[in-house]
Amino acid sequence: MRRATLIVVGVLLAGxxxxxxxxxxxxxxxxxxxxxxxxxxSGAPTSxxxxxSxxxxxSxxxxxxxxxxxxxxxxTVSAHGTFDEPWAMTFLxxxxxxxxxxxxxxxxxxxxxxxxxxxxxxxxxVHEGQGGLxxxxxxxxxxxxxxxxxxxxxxxxxxxxxxxxxARLDLGGAPRLDGLTVIWRQQPSVSGGxxxxxxxxxxxDRQHLFVTSGERMQFAPAQDPxxxxxxxxxxxxxGSAPQVWSxxxxxxxxxxxxxxxxxxxxxxxxxxxxxxxxxxxGGNYGWPNVSNGSHYSSExxxxxxxGDGYVAPAVWWNPSISPSSLVVYTGSAFAPWRGDAFVxxxxxxxLVRVDLDGESARKAEQWDMGxxxxxxxxxxxxxxxxxxxxxxxxxLRLDPVR
Length: 402
Ligand SMILES: [Ca+2]
Ligand SMILES: [Ca+2]
Hints:
The protein is built from 1 helix and 24 strands. The protein is an all-beta fold.
């Protein structure tokens, strides 16, 4: 029966063409912006030597290096309001943001002032353990259809599971979700409140939704393709034809497409063994059979080794930093960081830059933020935004040092 939920039965949505890029989950921010300061208007002749090869990353000139502030960090930090267990955020085209709180509130936020208005019509959530209201992203057609996607922990037979729903965000009066419909449920429902995963991203084809599905502390099901614990799942924008995209995951809490279309995930490992993975269709990432960490009981888990049949992480941490979130930067405010990943760290109380170059990734910098970082996001003007974890988590804006 469970297997039946994975069989491709749906009809793919008809084209959803049009619209503008609505976030880092849509890989529409082209690298052409790198050259915009020197580029002639559309249709004008291009200066010799500035043309970019199609399909490659244009890097005409190294951007000016970032200045460092008195605290040694290449950014300034300003606080813009406080939230109760904030979990995720995304920006609207008008510059306002949606922020989720784990207790179940969805907030429409003026990020300059931090003023927040609750959005009505949210789902009932299981606010236990790590559960609650989770991610929020915009659909690829948001400017036309107002579609947003949410994830949350939902009550089910035997316990709870992650659920994904979509609705229309109605901003005509008091903000509300219209027609919220559950389009996907993690299977099976189990007891305990751990490892829901449930990060969301829209694919570069703008026709598919991806969700990370944690293994709910059940271990072996992450290797069982007939259940969706410990997987990355791809589905149509309406939830049709859900498909296991990759398996062997523990608790992947970050998910983002790079502008080149590659899918990157951050994954919370056991003791040690936090990972950044390049997620490929059909890839088996090894949990719980292999991990560069060990169980919390100190019982060892075999490390990733070449030829073991599992995809090794692109980057890993031991000791743990507890990666909570991941965004691939496409802005110009921090031009030298274009194309790199930023990871929020919970136990690491840090923001981490991971240098991405095609299929390779390496740790670049780690800045102490003095608080558990739950979410990292890119703003429409290229600023980086963070949400601190916990009952009075601040919304932080990072700008270049001037
Ligand atoms: Ca986000
Ligand atoms: Ca190990």
